[in-house]
Amino acid sequence: MTPSASLLLLLLLGLSQALPLQEEGIEEEEEEEEEEEVDEEDTVDITTRILTSNNATDEILLEGDLLAPKTRNAMKCWSQSCLWKKGSGGLVTIPFTTSSQFTSWERQKITNAMNAFHSKTCLRFVPRRNQYDYISIENKGGCYSSLGKTGGRQVLSLNRRGCVYHGTIQHEINHALGFQHEQTRSDRDSYVRINWQNINPQNAYNFKRHATNNLNTPYDYTSIMHYGKTAFSIQRGKDSITPIPNPNVQIGQRKGMSRWDIVRINKLYRC
Question: Peptidase M12A domain spans which residues (predicted)?
């Protein structure tokens, strides 16, 4: 083989080995970009996201994202009448519809959030056929839900511009299941301090304690139902909620249901 032919063969061999590596490198860069994009769009804490989105609604909301009761006198849902029913097979079936205003990607986000309930509890969200009681997931002016099953068509709002995130979806679904915010539970004063001086008096009602059934579970700073430290604060940098005794404990995460959130669902619905 002539020297020139040998050189050409070596060049071709080098190119054949280099191209797959180059493509792999491009794929890795694209994956990194996708991960960065996901992280970037999910940097807002859950409280800010919900309260900001709900500035656009005309609904009467309690605690930021709970529809004021129309069929019950108090913000309570521990009776059988406001819990979704368990079938003979041991599964709690919850019919739902999703507005056509959502894109296929947004519908998939909602489905993924629901699937977490399927894999860890006895709850099953199923497309509605003709059931009377069902959740209607709609693109309305904010992120909000009723507390527990209200009967008939029950609106769960997920505004497309600020609510279609995994943690936010699960937060509102948990309200529809009957769960209140963690920082309003009956024993909260042993675990957090409400800084009333940093809260507008007109918003103070949002921090009212409730006579909750805590299902013999501990206070959970990591609950998807816990608002962040600055919820309803009158000034940036002024915390409305301070964990005690350690004020540095993180509260108000947005990733998804905590272990105790799942335990409580299974306890309440006797899974």
Answer: 73-271
